[in-house]
Amino acid sequence: MRVKCVICDSIEKLNDETLLAKRLRNRPIHTFMCETCHDRIKEKTNARIATGNFRLYRDKKSDDKW
Ligand SMILES: [Zn+2]
């Protein structure tokens, strides 16, 4: 089956036998993301988590100072 990436609108061919293809067929909602976009979002999420940890660490440090 052919699927469209919700982010960059690129069309990709999906093997009908894969779990993802079956899931998309059952619920044809905007859930497909191409690998490129998937990786990009994963990176962004990881970066945000890293930033969050960093801030948390700094807050904790300034708390210790008080
Ligand atoms: Zn994409």
TrEMBL record:
This is DUF2197 domain-containing protein. It comes from the Bacteria. InterPro entries: DUF2197. It comes from Metabacillus lacus.
